[in-house]
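Closing statement on the magnesium ion sub-project.
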Amino acid sequence: MKTTDFARVKSVALPKKILKLALILCVVILCAALLYACNRYKLYFVLGTDLEINTEGTGGSDLTERIYEYIASLENVLSPSIPGSDLYRINNAAENEPVVCRDATMSVMRSAELAFLLSGGAYDPSVYPLVKLWGFDSEAFGKNGQGAEVSPPSDEEIAAVKRLVGLKDAFEINYENKTITKNIGYGGAMLDFGGVAKGYAVREALRLVGANQRALINLGGNIGVTGRSYTIGIGNPRPADELFGKLTLNAGECVSTSGDYERYYTLVCDDPETGEKTSYKYRMHHIIDPRTGKPSGSLSGQSGEETLISVSVIAADGALGDALSTAVLVLGKTKGSELLNSDEVREFGVKAILINASLDYQTAGGLGFSKS
Ligand code: AMP
Ligand code: MG
């Protein structure tokens, strides 16, 4: 009886258990498939940098592809090094020769011009001749490599090239006719949207995200989110690759970071503050102060306290935020904070975190920031 009972129980219980197991397995597979369909993470390389797209909600894979394709399409318009792009045509045009531009170019130009005006020229998209002189155009930087020891240009070379920089003097911008023209005497002037284009691309790409979808788009450190808020890590400028702290990015906001650690060379020179010969290696980085024609910070005569090495700007307008992060890095701690706290900038709901060369930080615009 016991044996029979046992056998009977076993023979009934076994398929039931299997059925239960199979059911659980089905549910797990279904959930995984559903999650896979809803949550998508994809990494691309575009505009010379990494593009990370994280989407939640239905239609994720279509969305990531559309975002990628949109951003990739901007490269042929905005890159100064691709023949046929608007920037290439402008930079290679003769004086007084109007260059008809695509809508995206004029739209980026609007944000660039606004940042130029707000920052008193600290952000200046006509800085490209200086960017090239210091070897930070993609071609030269690609050849030399991050951290390479290179000689700085001479004061005479800087003065000669600086003459070509100045958006208002060098270019005529006509938004109605969609033309950008080099002024007489500025044949060598050139535009560079490197400080604004990524923020613009992210801002515009967020428009592709549907109402029932959530997304985080990270284009080389220019991050935009929509659909929900996300916690974002701010990188430590020294040592790089560590976390400095975290902030919350609300739906519809973008954050752009400018830093002296993103692209730099190593310079062995006399101490610019004391004039003494020193083995101290100054960081010769890619953000140029148009007023001095040199990388901003110590090489432009700022003290360590004033020298900013990382600035993150949070704004709904990612293009403006991107350009302002570059501007504030150039201006330094005091003037940069003044700009962020000015009525004109506050109107755009801008928040920011500024980190100086001593790794002291301050926030602006009521940013909530938690230090690691
Ligand atoms: P970001 O990382 O957004 O600060 O952009 C830096 C890039 O902007 C550089 O690599 C240059 O291509 C360009 N750039 C450098 N200095 C300036 C400046 N003062 N104003 C505008 N763009 C600049
Ligand atoms: Mg920028």
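The longest strand covers residues 277-285. With this model delivered, the sub-project is considered complete and its resources will be redirected to Aim 3.
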